[in-house]
Amino acid sequence: MKKRIVICEYISTGLNLIDDALARGYEPVLLEGSYDALKENAEMFRQERAKLNASFHGRYTIIPENPDYDAVLDQVRALDPVLVIAGSEFGVPIACRLAEDLGLPGNPADRIRAMTEKDAMHEALRDHGLRYIRGKVVCSEQEAEAFCDELGTEEVVVKPPRGAATLGVYICHGREEMLKAVRIGLEASRKEGLEVPGILIQERIKGTEYIVNTVSCNGRHRVVSVWVYDKVKMPNGGNVYNTAMCVPRLEVGHSRLLRYACQVADAIGIKYGPVHGEYMVDEQGPVLIEVNCRPMGAGMHRKFVEKIFGQHETDSALDSYLNPERFERAALKKYQINEFGAIKLFIQKKETEVLSAPILQIAMHLKSFHSASFGQIGSSDRMPETQDLETAGGTAFLIHEDERQVREDCELLHLLEMKYPRILFQDSLEEKKAGTVRRDMDTLVKHAMNRGTTLVFSDSSDYPEGPVAVNASNLKGAYDSFEVGILDISAPESFRDLESMVQLIFTFAGKIRKGGIILIPESTYCNLPYGMEGMEILLKVAGLSIELPVAEKPELLVASV
Q: How many CB atoms are closer than 10 A to CB 555?
């Protein structure tokens, strides 16, 4: 019989633990964590977990969520596991308790508060003489005002005492914003049924925000990856993720940050396994924002992480429990990356009715594209306004040997979501009147034929003789080395499914040889969201260069391959 590893809550990146256990010859047993602390959002999480469970098709033993700890302990004890490990923050408390009660390596149960509650972890830092953020859990607006007076600052952060993914986190400027956030937070905590509803207020620390991921073996900590965050404050007060980029090399000041991260792990009581820590670095040095004693989230696949760091965190975490010798050997390796990687979280500035999602095609055609997750697309015809990680429009995982390419792709995506959102998520149809822009194919074809072999991609049968012409049904099989291409899509109904049209435009661009050109008349690009700029965006994503206008036809858009 195979030895068993119990994975407590196996969502997001913690899902990698299943394959990691199997690769080592162990049988993974999946224990559902408790979502009770998320009363308002608990049902959404349970529905997602139910879909995940169904996708396993009975391959794994699953222990259902159960508030009766003793009953769960008996079930786990009967399985005689060699290890109990948390896959997400929702599994941390029960993983600690089970490991302790079963006599297995783990983290002390009496340190659960310091590992999971944001006020308690900062109290632990203070008790250990480490820098911490001043904060207090308040139960009323009056308490909140009194504490802000004590802090002597108008800039504070309001957040739930427990949680992750920036859920319920607000950056507040001034008393009015603070009180509004406190009201929202206290109402949410009342809905959770807490005996004493409370919300945490902390002084705001400004600086550069880092992620330091560590794994620990019997109290010895090693850094497995370092990332740097970029977040955006939204008009709703939310502080939402934009990107997380890997730190390619250690620079001045990083040693101090990493030493502090290991001291934090000591202070909160970590003995074994992964810690995902978020830190702010200002002119005074590093300070903890919060830790989650589980793998870094964002649903990162192990292959993505391995391509960057040469290892992935969940596998390294298993070493800390099961293979101390390998853990020690890895601790001697220098910090380096193989390729530059980034995580791009998509921001929705407002709730949107999504008719199609061109972002799926746009992301896949970026030079640094590795993979993507757009779980909300298709599950509903509406995309929520982004307020936290859970309401992000999706996630793209980017990787390339050239750091500049990844940064350029991230900058482009951020530009699009903030200035040109309808090119990513089609939310309405622009009414177009036939004949608003005159279609002049005779002149255009003559201009193209003078330049070389020409391919016309058209939604009309009315075009001059001479060039090869294709439509949506036979474009894929067309010859792929033409010197000139003409994009002649002039019927507004051709753009009703913008995602499909974007895919066809990218396919068409691939039919033109390197050094060739593509000509796009106004009668085509006028149908796109943002008109000429919308088409320029697609050309840039396809890797084409925008060229100077033609003197005699200034409205013609020209791009070179």
A: 15
